[in-house]
Amino acid sequence: MRIHETQASREVRDPYAEETNSFNDLTEYNRTVLGVAAKRADLGAMPKPVRFFAYFFYGFLILAFLAFVLTLIYKS
Q1: For 6-15, what is each residue's pLDDT tens digit?
Q2: Transmembrane segments in this chain: where (predicted)?
């Protein structure tokens, strides 16, 4: 890719090419045009309120699943 004619051309490579293997055109469209995230978000890099909400949400999901399993066990 050249920015100016006096600069040497270099190849521009897609950093996510190895990570995402699209199996149809719609996935490729979403990744390139709409900007779908190719990597998982690092929860440790998020602000504290977002992290606390995520921890609360994950904890609630785990406790709800355990309560569901326990009610199935004790009900039968």
Answers
A1: 777 666 666 5
A2: 52-74
DSSP characters over 20-51 = ---SSHHHHHIIIII---SS---GGGS-HHHH
Q: What is the per-residue pLDDT across 7-49, written as a single tens digit (0 to 9) for each?
A: 776 666 665 555 556 566 777 777 777 776 667 778 888 899 9
| Residue carrying the six token digits 């004619």 | 5
Distance of CA 60 to the CA centre of its chain: 21
47, 36 Cβ separation under 8 angstroms: no
Residue spans per domain, the chain:
1-39, 42-76
